[in-house]
Amino acid sequence: MKTWTRATIGLSLAFIVTACTGAGTDPEPTASMTTEPSPTVSELPTALPWPVAPASALPDENTTPMITEMQRWVDGGFLPGATAAVVSPRGEWTGAVGVDGQGATLEPTSGMALAQITQTFVAAEALLLAEQGKLDLDVPASTYLPIPQLANGATTRHLLGHRAAIPDPGPEPYASVFTAPDAHWSAEQFLEPVPEATDPPGEEFYEDTTNYVLAGLVVQEAAGRSTGAALAEDLWSPLGLERFAYQDEQSLPEPIAAPGEDENVPEGQTGRPYLPFRSAASAEAAAKGVAGDALSVARWGYELYGGHVLTPESVAQLTDFVDVEPRYGLATVDFSQPFFYRWGLDGYGIWGGTVGYRSVLAIYPDNQLSVAILTPSTVDAIPYVRHLVNAGGLRD
Q1: 155: number of CA atoms within 13 Å, CB side?
Q2: Domains present along the chain, CATH in parentheses
């Protein structure tokens, strides 16, 4: 099986997908679990918009088994703690089990670093600006941001799809981030060691933080506002999503879950007020800097992929997967590809990892279902989605 890398602070600069198969991180199979090949995304119903999600809670017959299943993860030693949420036309639910990295009991509203889920916001804002005629995704991004790092003609679409062939910044900025964890970093500081781009874009997928750091600056130029202000004003406020923060321009109010045990967490860092800590959050702001809670993430997934934020044509661009592994669209991964069969997934979504936190947003379009799991740990959240969904009978 082919692997691909994900450049990230705190994971030795590369998050190897095959690490998700590590022993002891996946709970024992349940009777209802299936590992049969899933339908491809193109075979799933895509009618938009989905119904307006009701504010009512899911029935106890769904929610009680889900919290029991989550408790099993903690009791079995698979995870120290987690929060989860689901949103569907039948209702919504969120729950929490276990503790954070400081031993504090997690609450359903405990905020955590969302890592690569951040990229769904930046991609959505770029598509929204394109709908408004303020941004052309298919002209060179240097049209908006004339800097050497974009000299190869990469477009904003290339950046959003991690196919821009932008050089890696190397280890220097990451080393500096850990040296002064309480410092603010600007995007320009992060990009300073990135050399001029010379390779042709559009040929190969390589997920690197630099793509979205650059995309965030393009969004800022096109929107005429800071990236954080654009996300808050255009995406979160209209949807009533108040538990998101674009760090360190914004910070998330309590409750906050401290980062889990991780050798990369600088001494004394408790995740307050920035997650996992200020230098990491601000250096990678447009790539991994948003913090939030599980219900906000699940609601966001439902609204975004359900056609309540963008036009159906724009939503289709998010899930227009390039037909080579890892079948990545714009800030969205095809979970129906064979790599994900081992976890019983289909549909699509995105997962993330940063220092002391892991996260996943999974979308089941055939069921109009959005699922989010966050954990303050270094255990990947992706294998737990199927267990939560099966326990709750959410696809019955």
Answers
A1: 13
A2: 29-392 (3.40.710.10)
